[in-house]
Amino acid sequence: MNSTARIQVLLYTQQPFVARGFAAVLHGRRDFGLAACCDNLPRTLQCLRRAAPDIVLVHLASRISLSDLHELRAAAGHSQIVLWGQGLAGEFAFQAMQLGVHGILPADTGVDALLAALQNVHRGVLCFEREMMDSVLLQKRVTLTRRQGQIVSLVSQGLKNKEIAFSLGITEGTVKVYLYKLFRKLGMNDRLDMALYGLRNLFAGEPELGRMRVAGRRARHAADPFGPRSLPPQVRERVRLHAVN
Q: Per-residue DSSP letters for 104-148?
C-alpha cells in the first residue's frame, strides 16, 4: 500500500497525551496517516473542511453535545465519524447513529482493535458494540422537539425559569407551560430528574453521574445541545462567580 492509499485520520481530543500517543502509534505505518490532531471544536471543523480526511476520530474524554456532533457531521462531508471513549449511551448514542456516526468504540479498546475498527469503518462497516446496540434498541424512545430540547438542556445547566425565558426570548409563563408538559412527557416530578435526564441523554463524554458534585458543577458550563449557544450576560456572570466560589 503506497502513501496515497493511506487512511487519513483526523483526531479530535483535548488530552495531549492521547494526541501524542495516537501520533506515535501511526508513525511509520503504511496503512494510516495522521491528517491532524485538534484540541478544540473550531479548529477541528476548520481542519475537516481543509484536509477532508477519511475518518474523524473523536475522543470523548471531554464533554461533547449533540450540537457539536451536528456541526461535525455538517463539516465532515464524505469523512466518516467515529466516537471513542466513555460516557456515551442512551439517547445520545441513538442520535449519533441517526446522524450517521459509523462507529462508537469504548475507552478501553486496544490499539490493534482500534485500528482494525477504523479500517472497517473506512470500508463501510458499522462498528458498534453489541451491548450498546441492545441498549439503544431496548430503550424507550422519547422524541423531544427542538424547543423542548432547549428547555431540558438549560435546566441541566442549572438555570431558573426567568433565566431560561431570557435566554430563549420567551416569557417566563411559557417556560412554565413547557416544563409542565415536559414533566408529563418524561414521567418526572422535579427539575433534578430533568437535569439528570439532560446530562445523561443530551451530552456525552462525562464520567458516570454518580459523581454528582462534579456533574452539577459542570452542568452550568455545558454547551446547549439544541442551541442557543450563548447565555445572557448576567447569567454568565452568575455562573462565573459560582465556579470561583
A: EE-TT--HHHHHHHHHHHHTT--EE-HHHHHHHHHSPP-PPPHHH
Cell of 51: 484536509
Domains and CATH numbers, the chain: 3-138 (3.40.50.2300), 146-244 (1.10.10.10)
pLDDT in tens, the chain (245 residues): 344 579 999 999 999 999 999 999 999 899 999 999 999 999 999 999 999 999 999 998 766 777 788 889 999 999 999 999 876 666 778 778 888 899 999 888 999 999 999 999 999 999 988 877 776 666 666 777 888 888 988 898 889 999 999 999 999 999 999 999 999 888 888 898 888 888 777 666 544 333 333 333 333 344 444 443 334 444 444 433 333 33
